[in-house]
């Protein structure tokens, strides 16, 4: 931080980020060379967080820098109260964003401008519905987190009993969720003859397009079966895989932008790596993303399986023990030899055997890649952020590998240890006695079960909505019980040593 403060002092007259000040920003900043006043909207994006701006928006910016896709500008949207504050921040700076790349060899910054508006955040989503119903909108994309698709915890199917889904089914003209709003807009488009749009999930879910289709069609069927059939027949929902490590923004990130002479209320930092793989299934056209490095393929599932199992699963493997030990960032976790070795052994022995290679990359090569990415000391990605919503992330990223290992007869002891570490994390205290603040939408339930599991480890695996019938798989259940008892009796590091030895 001292270095950042000194850098900021070299720019005593920070330039506020606005369209009118772009020509005042000094080299080596890369700024939009396209005329933003001539951009036309084509995409509505719901969930304008850091990841969207560092990833999907960046790819579109690169196209616009080349004079392409100028009729595919983004209109931002949100459905949560917190999105209103983000709207104020971004509208105040003409929806421009400073991206700071955190490369260990040197930091660099650029300003991107493919987003041209941010819709009002309203309880009935009226403005959002109007914009999605407008024929100019050809893609509606989302980053609403992997836990935001109203999936039934046990079956993975549509959760029709969720209170939000029941509300939207009963009030289709005034929905409270993004999905209800999309359905209301599609009803207008159908009735007005404006045709369908493509729904593009950019969240970390295997088969995210199929899941988005399931949520929309199932919710629409609750109130209008004919509309549900129209959506299912006419709209497209390409599956896709997204990848870029993007920390949350705080004072350090704002100071980084200031070190480049920019006053940005919502800058984004990111690693020096991006990947986007998408099925080429767009019912109303799309930008030429392949021109800027996006992989368009019918084999998305192979790419996403590697990424979700090894990178996202790997994040869960290291974040829980690190949090219990009071290690605050992913990069710092990788300096702990036990945690780093734990990651490599579990992935090599228990996850990679069930992951197919992709063009140009084997599972072992991908593990080496994420080892380097996780170890980047300039990425201040917190273990708390990565550990958030384990009740969605463990079922999504680790439990499929457990099931495949049991089915194939390969080891699952390390994955059982990862589950035991999550149970210990949800107990709510670190080994130094400090409290772990609630960090999951289902924290109260997880915390209560974790406390019971101290005396009876099987209680944790009996959460059927997370583990299904895994409590009946003796090899996994016995290993889990041994590991949880070891963690409580002898500590996290001793449990890791025993696994590694």
Describe this structure as you would to a colleague.
The protein has two domains: 2-297, NAD(P)-binding Rossmann-like Domain (Rossmann fold, 3-Layer(aba) Sandwich), CATH 3.40.50.720; 301-500, N-(1-d-carboxylethyl)-l-norvaline Dehydrogenase, domain 2 (Orthogonal Bundle). The model is unreliable at 1-11 (pLDDT under 50). 48% of the residues lie in helices and 11% in strands. A five-stranded parallel β-sheet has the order 6-3-2-7-8, with helices on both faces. A three-stranded mixed β-sheet has the order 5-4-11, with helices on both faces. The protein has helices at residues 2-9, 50-54, 56-65, 81-92, 126-133, 163-170, 178-192, 208-223, 225-234, 251-259, 300-324, 330-333, 337-351, 363-374, 383-387, 390-408, 413-426, 443-455, 458-461, 464-467, 474-490, 492-500, and strands spanning 15-16, 41-46, 73-77, 97-103, 106-112, 115-118, 139-142, 198-201, 240-243, 262-263, 268-270, 275-278, 295-296. It contains 22 helices and 13 strands. It has 501 residues and is of the alpha/beta class.
């Amino acid at each position: 931080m001292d270095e950042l403060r000194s850098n900021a002092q070299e720019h005593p007259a920070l330039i506020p980020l606005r369209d009118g000040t772009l020509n005042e920003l000094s080299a080596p900043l890369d700024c939009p060379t396209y005329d933003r006043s001539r951009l036309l909207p084509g995409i509505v994006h719901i969930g304008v967080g850091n990841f969207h701006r560092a990833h999907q928006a960046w790819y579109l910016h690169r196209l616009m820098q080349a004079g392409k896709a100028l009729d595919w500008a983004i209109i931002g949207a949100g459905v949560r109260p917190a999105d209103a504050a983000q709207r104020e921040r971004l509208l105040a700076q003409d929806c421009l964003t400073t991206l700071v790349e955190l490369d260990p060899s040197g930091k660099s910054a650029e300003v991107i401008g493919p987003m041209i508006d941010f819709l009002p955040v309203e309880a009935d989503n009226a403005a959002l519905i109007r914009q999605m119903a407008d024929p100019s909108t050809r893609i509606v994309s989302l980053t609403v987190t992997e836990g935001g698709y109203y999936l039934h915890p046990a079956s993975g199917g549509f959760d029709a009993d969720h209170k939000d889904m029941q509300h939207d089914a009963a009030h289709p003209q005034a929905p409270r969720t993004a999905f209800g709003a999309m359905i209301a807009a599609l009803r207008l488009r159908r009735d007005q003859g404006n045709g369908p749009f493509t729904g593009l999930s950019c969240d970390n879910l295997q088969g995210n397009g199929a899941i988005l289709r399931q949520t929309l069609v199932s919710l629409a069927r609750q109130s209008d079966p004919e509309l549900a059939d129209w959506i299912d027949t006419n709209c497209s929902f390409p599956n896709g895989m997204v990848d870029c490590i993007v920390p949350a923004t705080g004072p350090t990130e704002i100071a980084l932008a200031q070190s480049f002479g920019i006053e940005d209320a919502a800058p984004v930092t990111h690693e020096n790596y991006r990947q986007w793989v998408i099925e080429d299934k767009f019912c109303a056209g799309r930008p030429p993303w392949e021109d800027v490095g996006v992989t368009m393929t019918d084999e998305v599932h192979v790419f996403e399986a590697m990424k979700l199992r090894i990178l996202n699963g790997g994040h869960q493997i290291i974040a829980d023990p690190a949090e219990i030990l009071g290690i605050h960032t992913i990069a710092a976790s990788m300096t702990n030899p036990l945690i780093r070795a734990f990651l490599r052994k579990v992935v090599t022995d228990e996850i990679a055997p069930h992951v197919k290679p992709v063009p140009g990359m084997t599972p072992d090569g991908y593990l080496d890649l994420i080892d380097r990415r996780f170890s980047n000391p300039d990425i201040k990605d917190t273990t708390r952020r990565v550990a958030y919503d384990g009740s969605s992330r463990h079922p999504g990223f680790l439990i499929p590998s457990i099931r495949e290992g049991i089915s194939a007869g390969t080891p699952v002891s390390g994955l059982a240890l990862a589950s035991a570490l999550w149970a210990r994390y949800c107990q709510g205290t670190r080994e130094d006695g400090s409290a772990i603040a609630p960090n999951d939408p289902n924290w109260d339930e997880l915390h209560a079960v974790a406390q019971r599991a101290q005396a009876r480890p099987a209680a944790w695996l009996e959460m059927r909505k997370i583990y299904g019938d895994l409590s009946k798989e003796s090899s996994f259940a016995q290993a889990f019980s041994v590991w949880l008892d070891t963690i409580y009796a002898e500590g996290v590091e001793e449990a890791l040593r025993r696994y590694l030895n």
